[in-house]
Amino acid sequence: MTYKYDREADAIYISLGDAPYAYGKDIDNERRIDYAADGTPIGVEMTCVSAGVEVENLPQSAEIVKLLEKLHIRVYA
Question: pTM value?
Fold first, then answer.
């Protein structure tokens, strides 16, 4: 699991796999999941992270929580 954190944009992108991007789905205004053609989640984008992030309905949420906590980003279950 790798990530790109942009403090200026207040956003983080967490890569979950290396398959090519096929499509994405917005969960809400601050969260989006990207998928490979076979439906496998390959990435998660979250914005407004300085206010904390919601991890409900995210793939690999336990691993994402660990990463966000390391980065001192508040997590809401």
Answer: 0.93
